[in-house]
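Workshop exercise sheet. Pairs work together: one partner reads the sequence aloud, the other fills in the structure field after running the prediction. Swap roles for the next sheet.
Pair: D.N. / O.F.
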Amino acid sequence: MEKVSKQSRILAFDVVRVLAMFWVVTYHFGCEYSLQPMSPIANFFCITPNFDFGNVAVTLFLVLSGALLYRKYGNGNVGRLSTFYIKRARTIYPPFWIVNLYIVLAMARHWMAEGSPFFAGNPLKLLLTVAGFDGYVNLFGFENYYFCGEWFVGAIVLLYLLFPLLSWAYTKNKVALLAILVVCYGMQFVWPDSLEWKISAFPATLILKFVLGFVLMNLLPKLQHRWIGWASLAVFLLLCLVKTPAGIFRNDLLGTIAGIVAFFAVINFARKWDGSTLVGKVVAKLAPLTYCVFLLQHVCINWLQIAFVKALGKPVVELSPAMCLGLLAVTFAVILVAAYVLKFVSDRALRFAEGKFLS
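Structure field:
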């Protein structure tokens, strides 16, 4: 078995992060542009006969988040909880709060137009935005001041809060923890089909995928083998192209499997690159932007769609596949620029705030 350097592993994780970012954008783009599954080819990275790529992207993000935290705190000891949570908050909240300043502007507009700034009801609901849970509860029909970040922000906040407990339990008895999580996850598939698309966001699903990151981090040296990479790629392509039988093999389960095998494939094939290659350089530039892209992508897609429809003078349903590909490229470029600006402003604001606090 070939040894893999620490540097290669980090690059592989960045490739996973960038790939997940790409699939998040293509999935939401395909949804908003009402393309049909597998046709045109632009929509291949939106939905397949077995799963959607939004599911795969979230699976990759959750597994990677669990793996990276376990890599750093693998002995179950996170140190002082306050220090651990402050570090996690520094990565999540500054860009999230900056983008959500839009809500203040929206409140001012509603106050001037309608006499009340609280356009989404009870002002206490703003606490959900401050905590990052507005998108998560909005997913289940609870109206609030949700604007950006999807439901994933609340999901990752929940998992970070639970990490000390989960890593401790995993250290004590990983088999028992995994068995409990698998049973809880499996029980969700007896629920009505109408809830199927929400299974990806249920706590049992989130926690299982997060803890699978611990497992993959433990097994990482054993997963570094050429045949594992090629076999994983083959399984991924089969799941993308060949419809499986109906029944329990539903979107989240197959999307999870696709995400895991995609992870296996990347950590094997990314060994061929390093920081000096073109791929390595591009990945190094894009990887730090992934969270900001996650925050902004859906808002940018929706706003740009309005601009495209107005500029082209035709509704979305009349756009050709070639035009959709072109608009996808433009949309991606705008999202990346916006994400770069957001990260720059967020980093500067955080350094300023910490400087003021420490001085």
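Discussion prompt: Confidence is low (pLDDT under 50) at residues 1-9, 36-40. What would you look at next?
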